[in-house]
Structures are given as structure tokens and as C-alpha cells.
Amino acid sequence: MPRITVLAGGVGGARFTRGLLAELERRHPDPAERPEVTVVVNTGDDMWLNGLRVCPDLDTVMYTLGGGIDEGQGWGRPEESKRTSAEIAAYGRGWPWFTLGDLDLATHIVRSELLRGGATLSEATEVLCRRWTPGACLLPMSDQPVETHVRLAADADEHRSGDLVHFEEWWVRYRASVPASGFEQLGVEGATPAPGVLEAIAQSDVVILPPSNPVVSVGTILGVPGIRDALVTTSARVVGVSPIIGGAAVRGMADQCLRTIGVETSALAVGLHYGSRATGGVLDAWLVDETDAAAVPPLEAAGVSSSAVPLWMRDPASTAALAGAALDHAARV
Ligand code: GDP
Ligand code: CA
User: Fold this and answer.
1) Which atom number of ligand 1 is nearest to the Cα of residue 245?
2) In this structure, are residues 179 and 163 in contact, taking their beta carbons and an 8 Å threshold?
3) Distance between CA atoms of residues 201 and 139, nearest Å
4) Contact of 148 with 199, CB cutoff 8 Å
5) Cβ distance 236 to 215 under 8 Å?
6) For residue 1, pLDDT beyond 90
7) Which of 157, 279, 287, 301 has its CA 20 to 30 A from that of 108?
8) What is the pLDDT of residues 112-121, one digit of tens each?
9) What's the rounded Cα separation, in Å, for the pair 178 and 19?
10) Is 236 in the pocket of ligand 1 (CB under 6 A)?
């Protein structure tokens, strides 16, 4: 049975994976012949908030694949009220700028109950997925907390330049607009990949880096000891899809993240940042948008097989076609 592994962040990774599952269903109508998909999800954005374990990217992937996502927003559940969050804010507790809907809060309550009862994050995720049946195996990158923090390079409110703040505070409270000097993965030294992560990468035919944030989504996953090496050594083809089109992050603030680590916001620069597996990087292939076709020759010269195809995930059909292009390109290298 062929196997595919995707290393995903939140919205970009979730939408791509939904297109991938649709494309696989179209190509393999018989479920018995359909490749199995494992999604290794970034947990660097996770936090304890109001006594609850919140896992933004895991939940975005789970809701998106399970048909329970707020499509407009890209995260949370449709038509949920913010009444509970408003009550918590009225007590002056928590993060007033980080609103959680009340249906979403139920997920965090159940997860936190499981974790307090001794379950690992993988086990808790499996329980949550029994309800959502996402059609893929969702694995956290690690069962140990590895939380991304941002080193500020300017003062902001009660924070001084040089302070370390949680990634979600920089992202949501400051819309990534406070200059930063770097990212740190707190807890990463002692962390190990969650059960099944290394096996999935090693036993896959294709590993896909979807158009997720290359710094704070895919970069965070690759920072967990052992995962980058698994990509370097797997017999799978590793194909990536650029999250940058025409020199801009399509949605979100990936440009601020790339600037912080000194990488230009371009499909070429991000492809070279990941690098060719032939020279210690993680890619066999890198898809760029048609408007970035000029990046193909320099990528090929750097040992990364490349082609220019439409990368906009406009609707289910264009997203499935993009996933199909990634599979077809992987089959050619
Ligand atoms: P997050 O955790 O919710 O920020 O989501 P991800 O890290 O998975 O994905 C965010 C990235 O998706 C952003 O950096 C965007 O550049 C990228 N992205 C969003 N929509 C599209 C799209 O339609 N096409 C492509 N190629 N990239 C996209
Ligand atoms: Ca995220």
C-alpha cells in the first residue's frame, strides 16, 4: 500500500491536505487501493491558556479535514459564539486578544481532560479524531511541549526589546509587526518525535512539504531532533510546494518570519533555504507558481527538480489539481 506523509502547519497545510485526499479519492475510487496519508502537524504554536491545552494547528487540520472548519476564518468552528471568551476577559484573565469560540473550547476541554488523566498528546489527538474522522492519520510532531517563542527586537507594551514572547502573542496580538531577532523552540532539546512520525517518513513513497509557513510551521517540525535526518535519509521522494507566490505570502505573515531568519520572500529563496537532499537539504523537488517560472532554472542548477504550476488554492478543484501536480512531479524525480 503506497504511503504519503505531509508535514503541516495550520491553514495552508490543512487546505492542501484536504485537496490531496480529494485527489487520491478521485484517482483511487476503491478505498482498498488508496494510499494512506499521515499528517505530521506543527505543535510549536500550542499553549496552556486558562487551564486548557490549545493546539491551533492540530485543530485547524482536524476541523478542515473533518468538515468542521470556519472556512472564512480558516480556524475555529463556524457560527460559534465568543461569549465564554468575553466572560473570561471580564475576569481579567487569559489573553484578551486571543479569542476562542465556545465550540472550539469544548475541544480544548476534552483534550486537557485527557492530558490530565495521563494521555499523551498523540493519544488525545486520536480520541478527538474519532469524532472528526479526518481521513488521514494526524500525528503531533512531538508529544513533549515544544513551544515557539519570539525574541523581540523592539519594545511593545509591557515587553522590552530582547524579551522572549510566545509565538501566538507576537502573531495574534502584534500581527507579527514588532521586529524580531529570532525564533526559539523552548523544550526542543529534550523532545523526541511522536510515535509513528519517523516510521511514517521512512516508510512513505512520497513526503510532501505543503504550502505551510517555512519558518514557524515546517521549520518548527524540522527542528525536532530526528525529523530532519529522517527526511534526508528516507527512500521517499520529498516534494515541496511554495507558500510564496510572486514574492508575497499568499495569506498570513510569512514574510515577517522569513525576514527574521534572513531569507528573502521568494519562491526561489525558500526552495534554496530548504535545499537539495543531494547537498544536505530536505527537497528532491519544489513546485513554484507559474508567475515564478524564472526560479525553475536556478533551482534545477542547485539540484532541486522544479516545475511551475498554478499554486493558488482557490477552491477544492484547484487545490486537488495542485496536490495532483505534486504527486506527478514526485513520480518523475
Ligand atoms: P498557519 O499555521 O495557519 O499559519 O498555516 P500554515 O503554516 O500551514 O500555512 C500558512 C502559509 O500558507 C502562508 O505562509 C501562506 O503563504 C500559505 N498559503 C495560504 N494560502 C495559499 C495558497 O492558496 N497557495 C499557496 N501556494 N500558499 C498558500
Ligand atoms: Ca500555525
Assistant:
1) 26
2) no
3) 12
4) no
5) no
6) no
7) 157
8) 999 999 999 9
9) 34
10) no
